[in-house]
């Protein structure tokens, strides 16, 4: 992952976790608690892809496991958000942008349902039956409803911040290649001249070829003049 991705993801996840623990967790809403950390992971995975989404999801889930008042084994939610980040990243369009708002909203619904089921499933494996006492159907409904209501105010904003960070011209991919998406450095060059880089290179080559042809023509002309003068002297 790039440095700008790590810094941005760490800042957003930290803010989301603090708001979730100090504000959303104290609202005493019926059923589930609005999961702002999940929405942050979903938004970042939709921009960064499945690999970064899995890494961000694991780190965000581990912080949530360790944050008070944690009442479950550490690593449980880290596993859940790691899988969610990976799967959401796979749903990212090739162009990196959705044609309408229905794509992110449907992704949020699927992530809310999937995270609740995965959390309950992992809890059942380790002997935690809290989901049974609360009611799995009620948790699914309230978690999906709360996250869907909160998503329009968080997901577009986080995705916009992530895309702006990706448009940094100094950013370099971890594998050494150019950043995916729009190349802002090329855009700046094109904005100042109205030409693309390829057109600039082609123009330079054409000017160089013309210069060589003109010099060759002048040399031939000088040689022709010298030959005429020699004939006249003879």
From TrEMBL:
The chain crosses the membrane at residues 6-24, 36-62, 74-91, 103-122, 134-161. It is a multi-pass membrane protein. GO terms for cellular component: plasma membrane. Keywords: Cell membrane, Cell shape, Membrane, Transmembrane, Transmembrane helix. One of its GO terms (biological process) is regulation of cell shape. Pfam families: MreD. It comes from the Bacteria. InterPro entries: Cell_shape_determining_MreD (IPR007227). It is found in: Cell membrane. The keyword Transmembrane helix applies. Belongs to the MreD family. This is Rod shape-determining protein MreD. It comes from Streptomyces katrae. The lineage of its organism: Bacteria, Bacillati, Actinomycetota, Actinomycetes, Kitasatosporales.
């Amino acid at each position: 992952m790039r440095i700008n991705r790590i810094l941005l993801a760490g800042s957003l996840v930290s803010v989301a976790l603090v708001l979730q623990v100090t504000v959303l967790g104290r609202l005493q809403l019926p059923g589930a608690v609005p999961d702002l950390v999940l929405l942050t992971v979903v938004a970042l995975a939709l921009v960064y892809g499945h690999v970064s989404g899995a890494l961000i999801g694991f780190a965000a889930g581990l912080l949530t496991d360790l944050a008070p008042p944690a009442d479950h084994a550490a690593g449980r939610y880290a596993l859940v958000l790691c899988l969610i980040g990976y799967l959401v990243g796979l749903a990212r369009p090739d162009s990196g942008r959705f044609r309408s708002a229905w794509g992110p909203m449907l992704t949020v619904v699927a992530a809310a349902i999937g995270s609740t089921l995965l959390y309950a499933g992992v809890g059942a494996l380790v002997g935690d039956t809290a989901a049974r006492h609360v009611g799995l159907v009620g948790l699914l409904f309230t978690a999906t409803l709360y996250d869907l209501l909160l998503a329009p105010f968080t997901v577009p904003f986080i995705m916009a911040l992530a895309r702006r960070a990706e448009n940094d011209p100094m950013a370099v991919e971890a594998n050494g290649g150019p950043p995916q998406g729009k190349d802002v450095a090329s855009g700046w060059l094109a904005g100042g001249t109205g030409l693309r880089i390829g057109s600039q290179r082609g123009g330079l080559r054409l000017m160089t070829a013309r210069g060589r042809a003109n010099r060759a023509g002048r040399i031939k002309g000088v040689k022709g003049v010298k030959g005429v003068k020699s004939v006249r002297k003879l």
